[in-house]
Design a protein that fits this description.
The protein is an alpha+beta fold. The protein has 5 helices and 5 strands; from the N terminus they run ββαβββαααα. The structure holds FE2/S2 (inorganic) cluster (FES) (2 copies). The site of one FE2/S2 (inorganic) cluster has 12 residues, from loops.
């Protein structure tokens, strides 16, 4: 079936299998491999992208369901060589080790700050509660999101 989706600001049209998951469309058809594919069972959160500004697990959505919608992936965070504040925050606060969970964490954090520019640590923890990190213990991830919120408040 034919689908037209806006991905990172560009309209793309492709013939896809009705059963194809969005994560596979992004990674294999569009070569946007920044979105990670971890569990395929909706548990890990490594595959989170934004759909119309809301964080969604791209392993739980069919490509066909995205017809006419806007998808944003981690590749869209850096603009003209400038890191998004959430990316910068992860760097500043050492919020990653292996990095496998990081794309999903970043897109979840970006969606949170777009909706709530000054979240409490509890609100940050709730926002990332659908994502698993095996390395960091989450403390530095919360700190990184807080760092980004503070940077954006000053800008
Ligand atoms: Fe989607 Fe793990 S791959 S939640
Ligand atoms: Fe390794 Fe999060 S940094 S899983």
């Amino acid at each position: 079936m034919q689908v037209s989706i806006t991905v990172n600001g560009e309209r793309v049209s492709h013939d896809v299998e009705p059963r194809q998951l969005l994560v596979h469309f992004l990674r294999e058809t569009l070569d946007l491999t920044g979105t990670h594919w971890g569990c395929d069972t909706s548990n890990c959160g490594a595959c989170v992208v934004q759909m119309d500004g809301e964080p969604v697990k791209s392993c739980t959505i069919l490509t066909a369901m995205c017809e006419g919608h806007e998808i944003r992936t981690v590749e869209d965070l850096e603009i003209d060589g400038r890191l998004d504040p959430v990316q910068q925050g992860f760097h500043e606060r050492h919020a990653l080790q292996c990095g496998f969970c990081t794309p999903g964490m970043l897109m979840t954090a970006r969606a949170l700050l777009d909706e709530n520019p000054n979240p409490t640590d509890d609100e940050i923890r709730t926002a990332i509660s659908g994502a698993i990190c095996r390395c960091t213990g989450y403390k530095n991830i919360v700190s990184a999101v807080r760092w980004a919120a503070e940077q954006e408040a000053r800008a």
